Structures are given as structure tokens and as C-alpha cells.
Amino acid sequence: MTFEQRLAEIRERLNGSSLDCVVAVHDGAHFIEKPDPVKVLTGFKALGPAAAVLDRGGAVSLVVTPRWDAERACETCPGVKVIPANDVVAGLESALGPSAGEIGIAGLAAAPYCIGKRLTELSPRARPADAIVFEPARRKIDTEIADAREATRIAELGFQRLLQLARPGMTEDELAGELRWHSKSLGAEDNFVLLCAGPHNKAVAPSNGRPMQKGDIIVCELTPSYRGQLAQICRTIVLGKAPALLREKYELVVTAMQAGFAAAKPGAVMADVCSAIDAVLEAQGYGEFCHPPHIRRRGHGLGFGSIGPGDVALDNMIVLEPDMLFMIHPNQYLPETGYLLCGEPVAMTAQGAEVLTRQQAALAEIAV
Amino acid sequence: MQTMHPTLLVGPADWNPRRMPREEFDERLAALWRDCPNAAGAVVYGNSSNHAALAYLTNFTPKLEAALALIPRRGEAQLLIGGGVNMVAAAKPLTFVENLAPLRDAAKTAAAWARALPAGDIILIGGDAMPFGMRRAFDQALGTDRNVEAADAALLACMRIKRPRELRALSETCATLDAAVKALRDASRDGKNVTDCILLAEHVALQRGAQDVRSLFSLDGGRTLRPFDLPIARQCNPLQVYLAVRHNGYWVDGFVRVVTTDDALQEKVGGVLDAIVASVTPKLSCRDLARIVDAGRARLRLHPLADDVFGSSIGLSLDEPPMLRRDGDATFALGAVYSLRAGLRDETGAGALSSAIVAVSASGADVLWRDGVRS
What we know:
A: Creatine Amidinohydrolase, Chain A, domain 1, Creatine Amidinohydrolase, 2 domains, 6-stranded mixed β-sheet, 4-stranded mixed β-sheet, 18 strands, globular, B: alpha+beta
């Protein structure tokens, strides 16, 4: 699917509704779990708050702040009318004109109050229109999948870098900072490096100033973004020799992940993938650890545009289709070992889940 | 300056009591209570892109998900952090607040907390940055029992005047910016490509312990600036870069231009910046500043990054209010620290930008950083 084909599908949905246009809004604070409808409609990753308007005729306008960033928007989105502004709502008012008709808004719930309040004052009768934008974007377009492959390649190189860098005495923050910087040198414009270490991790959490120690288990999610498309790998590394019990338990988590891959087939629902992973762990007596606070989900979609098809979770009944892109990560807390990270990005094909990594997760050791 | 917001803040943000002892935060909070005499407690929201107020009062930087501080006028604060209960241990080193809990159903939790307070208003800080849905739930939950007053302006007035420890932190951050700029200049003069120059500068800052480094650069002789997207294998002469560095919580930033030949445009921009810096006194207005800039630019056009806004206050936020807008009502304040910028475009469309970080004293501007000149 191309960008134009997906935009046509969004337009079809718009024309099938009673709305005259869809307004997409995003505050420019890019976050792995926050979808960006502006990026879906235009392909543009904004510096500041931005809005896009799609009308029934298929015309797209893009309000860009700060206004000095408008030339970059024009380069990125050649077919789009770019409206430079220093105030996104004022720019949107100009884009909509006096007779915009029935307006639907995508992204309102996540917009900051200072923008959302003014938007609703501008269009008091506007209705939520997230589904119009995000449902067609549950599947990735060709360039997003290609970019996810490159982001995956960068993530794997980042993991190799981690194995070279991590050592006792280095703080988690230092390691995370170096990895983020390294991925930028490989072409990633951003990287969600969630990393922590300890003898018994309760979760994977943002790094802090704790110096790592011999025997620590490092858990990390490396999530580079290439041209605005994220991909992730989840890995576990021991600073020193891994005990036999840890090896054994890690194999269990890898087996659970493989079960998840096998369950991810077109026509299955996402909950099936989660169930398949849970079943492996439950069979070994870890049923009570298959729920919060130990685990919330077994994977997730990958933004920055759409985060569809959503979480790999028991309550996600979305039907899997080719060109969906998401993470499968069992990422399990086990009482004997603590939290273990293990996960790969997959792209759905007609045959099933294609794992995008060249080398899948295996427990790694760093000699110290 | 607006930069590309990263999806996760990964830099060092632990609370360091030697740099910012608990009494520093107590004094900040006491000043807020003095300005809000009817307040029984404060609700302070922060997320990864907007958390200066939260950091000012708790030292906490929400690296991943949003956080909410519930601070009573008397008694200990609570900090509600995003993520589950298993994230609490990792968050503890980032703050002196001892009572940490997961941020679940924030509106209900805050309302229950407020009900237990003695009579008085609840002040809300950071409410405009809350997600729209969350804020509406908040207004509903809190608004019926208590008078809720936005207190962002009151706190910003406190934050604007930098305290001695903050000035020290800003000065240290300037040293890191200076080291990064030197690396950038050296790399450019060594013939490195654009991406390598910027990466080397960023790496120097990171190795000095920077919490965050952000950059913009020009590929068209300073006419436009852009964020990092894909690696650029070519060299640029002139190389116009914007670098922002955060260290120990505090931001500074600077426009840097590296050129290997005579640069008349840069000289003119330097002249405008000199005039701006020389004019700074407490109570100087933005309109006076605009007149100085307009006089200095002569027949050249102002650069789009410096035609309407000439800088802002700076500190725990990169764009700390007030913005120094051409038609704004802000005036320079004694004891505040500003990032000031000047920019011009010549008749060919080429542009140049230069900037300085200054602290305002009774006698004028003390320059904390300027490209090539650091006090």
C-alpha cells in the first residue's frame, strides 16, 4: 500500500460519514505510545504543535509551527498546502475558513488542554474522528515497512554497541545516552532507549544514575526511529556469567515468544497472540505473573504515526492482516530471575509474522 | 527555541542534594505559598516535554510518562508517577519526595487528597499541559469541592529570578555548551561533514554529563534551520548550527556559525547582538529591544528565527516565559537569565544567527555565554 492509497482510504471513510472534513492535531511531543494523526495524513513529523485538515475532495492542508519550519514541511509534503503559523489554533482557523461545515477531530484526547480547549471553542460541534484516520492506518504503507526494516537494523547494531560498552561502574544513564547517540550516528533521528540494570529487576524502567555492577542483569528496549518510523528489539544481558537458572528461564521466555510468532497469522485476532504466549508461561506455573503489575501486554504497535494494530493483549480483538507491524515481546517477570526482556518487531504477511531482526533474542553475557 | 522532542528522556536526572539541597526546594515552595496566601495545597502536573514547574518544586524529571505532585501547604508532598507500582523504585533517585505512588486515576486521587486538606484554595500548576481528557476529568473531580486557581504565573515569577544555586548550574551548563561548540568548530575546520560535526559536538556534551542535547542546522547557508533527519554526507561552509544543552536540569542554548572565509553577514549579526546585549538593563521593554534590533539591521532583512522573537528567559525550560516578542509587554527583570538572539538575511537569501546567554544585573547584562566569549 502506498501513502496515496492509504490517504484515499481515509478519504473514503470521511466521505462515508456526515463530516465535511477531518482535523488532525498533535502537539509535537512525540511519544512511542501517542499516535500522531498529522503524520498519518501528511507524513510530516512536526517540531511543534501541528494540525492537518483533510476535506471531502481529498485536499490536505498542514498547519506548521513554528512558522520558520514551513519550508521543511513543503519539502516533505509536496502535495499539501502548508500554512505557516506560530499558533496552531489560529493557523487552523485560517485553514478551515468561515464555512468548514461539520468537523471531525482526530487526536483531541491526547492534545494538551491549552490546545484542546481552544479547538473545541473554535468548533463546538466537532466530533471525534480518530477512527477515520487511524483505522486505515492499522496497516503500514510500503515505505513505513521499509523504514521499520532499517530501524531494526540500527537497533541490532545498537545492541552490538551495548555489548561493547556496558561494564561495571558505568551508570545506566551513561549507557542509555551513548546508545541513543550511537543510533543517531547510524541514521536514527530518535531512539526510545528504555534501559535499567540490577540483580533482580522488577520491571524495565527509565535509566537513572545507578552504577552497574558485576552480576547485574541489564534489560533494555532499543527503539530507533528511522524517518519517523519506530522499530524495537528487547534484550537481556548479564554483566558476567549467567547462572544456569537464568539461562533456563530465559529459554522459557524465548519459547513463549516463538509461540507468539506462530499464533500471529492473518485472520487470527491479536488476543490469540497474547494467549499463545501466556499459555507457555502458564504451563510452567507462572500464571499469576501473566497479569499486572508484572505484565500489562505482550507487545504493541509501532508509531510515530499510527500505533495500530494496538497492544498484544487479551482484550485486543483486532483481526491480523498483512502489512500490520507490531512488537511481540513476552517481557516477563519471573520470581526466580526478575524481569526478562525478549522481543522482536514483526510485519504481517499473507503467510504469517515475518520477524524483522536478523538475530533473535538470546541471553547475552558480557565478560567482566 | 523549538526543537524536535525526543520520545524518551534518557539523560542523568537524579537528585543531587549537594547541588540542590532540600532547603533550596523548601525555600522555593515557601515563596510560592507567600504568593498564594489562600492556597491549602498545590497540584503540579508535568510530562516529558513540559515539566519545568514540577522539576522546580520536586527535582523530578518525568523521563517516560507524566507525573503529578500533590503538595500540601503543611506536610509532605506525594508524587504520582506514570507506569505501574514496579516503576516506583527507578523513579526514587530522581527526587527528594519520599511518598511515590503510581499515577492511576489522577483526577480522583487528587480530589481525595484535596478533600483531606484544611480549608483553602487548591492551586493548579501545569494544568494547560495536561491531556485534554485528563484536564476535563480534573476540573470535574476537583472543581465542585474547592476553588481551584491556576498558579502558573505566580510560580513563573519565582522561577524567572534565578537563585544562586541556579546561577551556578546555568554557568556550568554554559561551560558544557562551550565545550560542545568548540568540538563543532574543530570538526568543521577539519573538513568533517555536517552530521559528523553535530554528532561530535553532541558527544562532547554527553561525555561531560549533559542531560540532553538538541540541535538544528542549516543546509542552505543559514537561510533555514532543520532538525536531524537523515545523515548528511556533505560539508557546509558556512555551517550554521543551533545547539541546546541541558545539564543538572538547566538549559542553555546558542547559535553558532562556522565559516572559513570573511563573513560580512556574521559581522553584521554580531553587531546587532552586541547592541542588544549592551542595551539590556532591568525594565528594558521588548518594544525598546525591537527598536534596537531594527536600527542595527540597517537595510538587511531580519532572519525568520529572529524577526518576531528575540529570545526568552531560560532555565529549567528551554523556552521559559516570557518570550521576548517584538510586540510583547515583557520587560527584562533583575536577576533573570535570558537567551538572546539576533539574525539577518542578506539580499542573496543567506542567513546568519548569533546568540548569547545573559544574566541581568543592576548594571546591565553579565554575559554567561556567547559564541567565542564566555565569562
